[in-house]
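ASSEMBLY PREDICTION REQUEST
Request ID: AP-0331
Submitted by: J.K., bench scientist
Number of chains: two
Total residues: 308
Priority: normal
Notes: Please return the full assembly, not individual chains.
Input sequences:
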Amino acid sequence: MTKSEIISWYRIQEMFRFHSFHMYGVIGSAVILGMIQVFIIKKINFKNIGGKIIEFKNKKLGRYNNLFGGIIFGLGWALTGACPGPMYILIGNGYYIFGAVILSAILGAFTYGAIKEKLPH
Amino acid sequence: MSIIDILSKPWPWYVAGPMISFVMFLLLWSGKTFGISSSLRNVCSIAGAGKYYKYFDFNWRKEIWNIVFIVGAILGGYIASSFFQNLDPLELSNNTINDLSKLGIVFSGELVPNEIFNIHSIATLKGFLIIVIGGFFVGFGARWAGGCTSGHAISGLSNFQLPSLIAVIGFFIGGLIMTHLIFPFIF
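STATUS: Completed
Returned structure:
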């Protein structure tokens, strides 16, 4: 992910400004290959290392949480230029300030857990 | 051109995308799922938040691979930047460079703008907003939505999950609002 520069704040800006195909190519090809992969795994009942058939949990559909949680995530994604995975990778790249971004993200997750019952889902 | 030279050049999308997909496969094969933001919940749980809130009350030891994955991600970033560093500036599109310069953001050629992402800028309103509030939104939003780019956009869409499609649409609504409507006020 470092090598394809998708952890770059600038690349995320480029994506949200529709100035380059790069990010869409990365995510799009990962998803299309992912769909083929999941299809084949289901079709041939592919087993994991433990010898169990791989099961796919369905994501829970909520009236509000997927959309509004998503929007809040998107606001943060554009600000920090990084989703959770890249935040860690950026630390490895020597951008230690992303430690503060991660701490804030953990605080965000904690706040969600603390007020979960009061939020619509 | 040596192997190191080839690896040091930026990788095109058609290399990176399939590799991400391969990571998802490795995780599925080893009986896990590809999703990173759940690690944020894990950290809270490890820190003992389960005593206070039900959401964090689960056996985090069973999910410890999540933390191992993160350590791997940090190491991967370290290896990529130490041994296969690309010395040329990032090839950002001219349109983006122009747009950002209108906002007063200088394109440094590095991965992130250093004038924003440094320890001193946290004390400024702009830096606090981007680093602390931005990070908070990512963590809060990902958990409310039930996943982030990996769990929803890659894993979820690969399995044709409607909640994931809605969440990804949300990601873009939020990102576009921030980039086009709010950025002019921040910068």
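REVIEWER COMMENTS: The two ends of chain A are 32 Å apart (CA to CA).
SIGN-OFF: pending second reviewer
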